[in-house]
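Hi C.,

You asked whether I'd gotten around to modeling the 175-residue construct. I have! Everything is below, sequence then structure, no commentary in between.
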Amino acid sequence: MAASVWSGYLTFGLISMPVRLFSGARSSGISFHMLHRDDLTRIKQQLYCPSDNRVVERSEIVKGYEYRKDEYVVIEPEEIKKIEPKTAKTMEILEFVKESDVDPVYFESSYYMMPEEAGRRPYALLTKALEESEYVAIAKLTMHNREYTVFLRPREGGLMLHTMYYEEEVRKVEG
């Protein structure tokens, strides 16, 4: 299986189990590279500072938040880590609902969830309970610096996780 995209703990009530997420799908489209027509060498993208009129190294770059047009506050990596939500390493199940109560229009990306060795038994128990009850779990998770509401459902003897769009991200049909 591919490399995991997230690892942490799945919790509900007093139960906590170590799990990993793996990408559930990938695009199989054709991708192209940009080449210099004369010698077919791949083109490199450079980071350019228009104020200094020069190419800058990655080590010279910081992250900033634009609070007003062309005015920024610099955010250091240590500051980002300090405000990391608790869902960065712990996925907490918030509730269980009937699968038919969740509109698939909210599904964003799909991931396979696999237990670590220490989590195999509670994982199997949760999977079986969801299969037999026809319920799914709604949880919170932070991945790629974004907090998601996620949907956990049984699939082929294991669990599938779907990140979900927030209501304001789903377009409404007009007309």
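If it helps when you're writing up: Residues 6-25+84-169 form a domain with the Ku70; Chain: A; Domain 2 fold (CATH 2.40.290.10).

Thanks,
B.
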